[in-house]
Write a structure and sequence with these properties.
The protein is α+β, with helices and mostly antiparallel strands. The protein has one helix and five strands. The protein has one domain. The protein has a five-stranded mixed β-sheet. It starts with a strand and ends with a strand.
Length: 89
């Protein structure tokens, strides 16, 4: 069972850490599931602009996302969310 630790991913101290994933594919799916649980459906309520690999403690990637309002207009607040995956041994 996949576990999500952390707060909101807005700083490295609050990074969202996804634990107990089997492989990178499952980790990627878990990242998108977390985004959809937090912000709503992809490409309806938010879109991913960029994802970059980093080395910030437990965080291994930073995702730049753009939120979208109910009129399908991009909001001015772009968010950078720090994510990390910990594989099951």
């Amino acid at each position: 069972m996949i576990l999500y630790k952390g707060v909101n991913g807005l700083t490295k101290e609050e990074a969202v850490i996804i634990q107990k994933v089997k492989d990178e594919m499952e980790g990627g799916d878990a990242e998108y599931n977390w985004f959809e649980e937090k912000f709503g459906e992809q490409n309806i309520r938010w879109e991913l602009n960029d994802q970059e690999l980093i080395d910030e403690g437990d965080a291994d990637s930073i995702c730049e996302m753009q939120r979208i309002n109910e009129n399908y207009e991009e909001l001015d607040d772009r968010l950078n969310v720090l994510l990390g995956n910990i594989l099951v041994n």
